[in-house]
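Design job #97: recover the sequence.
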């Protein structure tokens, strides 16, 4: 009897252990911290740079600045047929334009990119209340970067982004465009990543340049010096509660927030949202970008909460890029874009104004 029952007992024990491990591995909830949403900033690399610009324009009333690293102008990939073509057809056309015209700059003969035309598109979306009024951009501070060895997104494309900001009323004095470093297609650090000038995973590169610090100080002005060893909390949180009613959003199961101890204790911290690049999501490169790009050391010293939302690899988006060509639907550039809406909900949660509840 005992011998016949032992396998059953073992099975029950193994099932219980598996259940316990599953519970212990569940992501935490994104905390409510009472952050100041009106001091929010954004940055990103490559597709993340495009998304940073899209989020900034869509929510310009609350975003005070952006860091655009190897990314181009808002709406660059959108075709003239975007609002008329049903289904995925527009995204397919947009993708070709994105690759050829908004990365490799091979469509100059067709006027792509055209900052003046793109500015008209932004104004049109604002008049239709699909994005915030462009007056919200007037005081923004912007950092743009293009490495001289970047063959993925050419410098002329990033320059078009700078020109678009000027067209939209951002003062030239508020725009910093850095082009004098021999970097490849990567986010730059002082001490971490691949050799300067190379392009490859995890797409951070040791060019003896603290890009996180440079872009944050361009956005916020002079900051307190970075700390040597960040002592805040990395929180892996469940993104699904922010996407449950959003179709084709493309976000992964988990995101990461970094919370300095001071922001746990006292309300009013600012938030900086960091959008990863293609093939730079945690599922692909682990926590290297989150922990080693340089942001936490500045966050600890300056009461900054960091938000690292994550996109996942899918059939329509195998490299886990943020949507800057429309694979999530026609609204991808606007407040109703699934990815923009999900990140806004995350920010609402951090502030304490969230209407999304865990179920």
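Job complete. Output follows.
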């Amino acid at each position: 009897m005992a011998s016949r029952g032992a396998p059953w007992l073992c099975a029950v024990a193994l099932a219980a252990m598996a259940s316990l491990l599953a519970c212990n591995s569940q992501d935490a909830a994104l905390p409510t911290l009472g952050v100041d949403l009106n001091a929010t900033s954004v940055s990103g690399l490559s597709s993340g740079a495009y998304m940073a610009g899209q989020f900034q324009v869509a929510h310009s009333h609350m975003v005070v600045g952006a860091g655009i690293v190897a990314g181009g102008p808002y709406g660059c990939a959108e075709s003239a047929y975007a609002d008329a073509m049903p289904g995925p057809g527009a995204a397919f056309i947009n993708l070709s334009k994105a690759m050829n015209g908004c990365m490799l700059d091979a469509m100059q003969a067709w006027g792509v990119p055209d900052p003046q035309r793109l500015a008209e598109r932004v104004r049109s979306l604002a008049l239709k209340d699909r994005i915030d009024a462009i007056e919200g951009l007037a005081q923004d501070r912007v950092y743009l970067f293009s490495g001289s060895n970047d063959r993925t997104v050419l410098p002329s494309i990033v320059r078009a982004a700078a020109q678009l900001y000027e067209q939209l009323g951002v003062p030239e004095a508020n725009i910093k465009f850095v082009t004098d470093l021999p970097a490849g297609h990567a986010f730059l650090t002082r001490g971490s990543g691949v050799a300067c000038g190379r392009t490859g995973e995890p797409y951070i590169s040791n060019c003896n340049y603290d890009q996180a610090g440079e872009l944050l100080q361009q956005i916020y002005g002079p900051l307190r010096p970075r700390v040597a060893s960040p002592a805040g909390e990395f929180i892996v949180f469940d993104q699904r509660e922010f996407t449950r009613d959003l179709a084709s959003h493309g976000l992964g199961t988990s995101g990461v927030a970094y919370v300095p101890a001071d922001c746990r204790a006292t309300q009013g911290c600012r938030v900086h949202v960091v959008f990863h690049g293609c093939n730079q999501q945690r599922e692909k490169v682990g926590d290297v970008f989150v922990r080693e790009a340089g942001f936490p050391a500045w966050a600890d010293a300056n009461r900054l909460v960091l938000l690292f939302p994550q996109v996942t690899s899918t059939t329509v988006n195998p490299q886990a890029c943020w949507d800057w060509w429309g694979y999530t639907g026609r609204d991808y550039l606007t407040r109703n874009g699934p990815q923009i809406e999900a990140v806004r909900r995350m920010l609402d949660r951090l502030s304490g104004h969230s209407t999304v509840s865990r179920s």
